[in-house]
Design a protein that fits this description.
Blueprint: E1 3-8, H1 12-23, E2 28-32, H2 38-43, H3 45-62, H4 78-102, E3 106-109, E4 111-114, E5 119-124, E6 127-138, E7 142-144, E8 157-158, H5 160-163, E9 172-176, H6 180-191, E10 195-199, H7 211-223, E11 227-229, E12 233-238, E13 244-250, E14 253-259, E15 261-264, E16 268-270, H8 277-280, E17 284-285, E18 288-289, E19 302-304, H9 315-329, E20 344-346, E21 351-356, H10 359-364, E22 369-375, H11 380-385, E23 391-397, E24 403-410, H12 417-425, H13 430-434, H14 445-454
Parallel strand pairs: 1-2, 1-6, 2-3, 6-19, 8-15, 9-10, 9-15, 10-11
Antiparallel strand pairs: 4-5, 5-6, 7-16, 12-13, 13-14, 17-18, 20-21, 21-24, 22-23, 23-24
Helix pairs in contact: 1-9, 3-4, 3-6
Active site: 440
Binding site for FAD: 49, 112, 307
Disulfide bonds: 40-45
């Protein structure tokens, strides 16, 4: 055997799995056809946050007078904003290259495909070579999903990848889909002056979030100037003219929207085609590879993690899966991942962060609930920071006090949600959370106050 472990794909799940395997003494290689770090580091999580930071800085400049600062109004250099984002992504990819060398992991450049049991064929520039390993981990990730009536041409109808590197800032944009990707790009482009419309098929934007969070975000984004159309469907897009004509079916009839760019943000499709699944007998269902709690597929010695398996398509989920997978391979006894304790974050402004049951889902699951909600308008730190928009909402089991879920919208809440994930992991009760002393003044105090509000003990409301 050439290796103990070969990982196909170097996104967060792939490179984390490879590093952990090396730490555990396993001879490891990573197969990557493009850039180390995969979509997340190069075309997803990291460069989008760089774009959003530029938008935030621009907003600070334009609202400096609110903080008693006199300054000239800002001007967006779109090309420079994009260049900075790409620079950040390139730096992160080089960081992964360093980690590969540090951990003595071989990087095999090319497209990997399962062949026979324990072997991977890697093709690059027309040449192929077969490598062998006791364990092969598939971490091939996902790509922008295409709808039949919303084909992406990469110029006028685009996916998230093109949205990060447009040659010039569009004057107008229609964003189809209001999940995290759609909302983040809608916020970014609107903030720098593009006229943005968001079209969502369901009744609420960010439809996976608690309904109160969805409605709060919609109100805020509308105030910022974003046009939001819910319960609406894009029927077709005419790209023959200078601008796109987007036919949108609404509850009251069909509207035609005009925009320079249409961004399709309707989800992610898995990259499971052409990697040899059928040839070696790996079972799939509805575009996902079937795995057990330790990411073993139906074929011995073949594993799958990340976007191509069950669970949320999130970088931190893939990383956790990769660690669990290789620790099991190495003979350890890792605990299976609890997919109901995975934090989800959306990095618009205000930010959204959540974990666990929504209030509606908890009731549907049969729980009697206690709900506590604390608005940032009552937070001293939020007032001082000029960030009073939003709230923290906690959902508890009324019978035993178990913390079932948390839903936050506000400044920096994506940095606050980890406290709740840890608390739920340790099975904290509402009263224990109330008695956990939080520093003052901080935004995080709102967590303690929301818990207290659920039990009628809130001091500052």
């Amino acid at each position: 055997m050439d290796y103990d472990v070969i990982v196909i794909g170097s996104g967060p799940g792939g490179y984390v799995a490879a590093i952990r395997a090396s730490q555990l003494g396993l001879k490891t290689a990573v197969v990557e056809r493009e850039s180390l770090g995969g979509i997340c580091l190069n075309w997803g999580c990291i460069p989008t946050k760089a774009l959003l930071k530029s938008a935030q800085v621009f907003e600070y400049i334009n609202h400096a007078a609110d903080y008693g600062i006199k300054t000239a109004s800002g001007e967006v250099d779109f090309e420079a904003v994009v260049k900075r984002s790409r620079g950040v992504a390139d730096g992160m990819s080089k960081g992964v290259q360093f980690l590969m060398k540090k951990n003595k992991i071989d990087v095999i450049v090319g497209t990997g495909k399962l062949k026979a049991k324990g072997s991977v064929e890697v093709t690059n520039a027309g040449a192929s070579k077969v490598y062998t390993a006791k364990h092969i981990i598939l971490a091939t990730g996902g790509r922008s999903r295409e709808l039949p009536n919303l084909k992406q041409d990469g110029v006028k109808v685009i996916g998230y990848r093109q949205a990060m590197v447009l040659p010039k800032q569009p004057k107008s944009m229609v964003v189809v889909g209001s999940g995290a990707i759609g909302i983040e790009f809608a916020y970014f482009y609107n903030s720098i002056g593009t006229k943005v419309t968001v079209v969502e098929f369901l009744d609420n934007i960010v439809p996976l979030e608690d309904e109160e969070v969805s409605k709060q975000l919609a109100r805020t984004l509308k105030k910022q100037g974003i046009n939001i159309m819910t319960s609406s469907t894009v029927e077709s897009v005419d790209t023959t003219g200078d601008v796109c004509k987007v036919n949108v079916k609404t509850a009251t009839g069909t509207e035609v929207l005009e925009a320079e760019i249409v961004l399709s943000a309707v989800g992610v499709s898995t990259n499971i085609e052409g990697i040899g699944l059928e040839e070696v007998g790996v079972k799939t269902d509805k575009g996902k590879v079937l795995v057990d709690d330790y990411y073993r597929t139906s074929v011995e010695g073949v594993y799958a993690i990340g976007d191509i398996v069950k669970g949320q398509a999130l970088a931190h989920v893939a990383s956790a899966e990769g660690i669990i997978c290789v620790e099991k391979i190495a003979g350890h006894h890792p605990e299976p991942l609890n997919y109901n304790n995975i934090p989800g974050c959306t990095y618009c402004s205000p930010e959204i962060a959540s974990v666990g049951y929504t209030e509606k889902a908890a009731k549907e699951a049969g729980y009697e609930v206690k709900v506590g909600k604390f608005p940032f308008s009552a937070s001293g730190k939020a007032s001082a920071a000029g960030a009073k928009d939003g709230f923290v909402k906690l959902v508890f089991d009324a019978k035993y006090g178990e913390l079932l879920g948390a839903h936050m919208i506000g400044a920096n809440v994506t940095e606050m949600i980890a406290e709740i994930v840890t608390a739920r992991k340790l099975e904290i009760t509402g009263h224990e959370l109330i008695k956990t002393v939080h520093p003052h003044p901080t935004m995080s105090e709102a967590i303690m106050e929301a818990a207290a509000e659920a039990y009628g003990e809130c001091i500052h409301l």
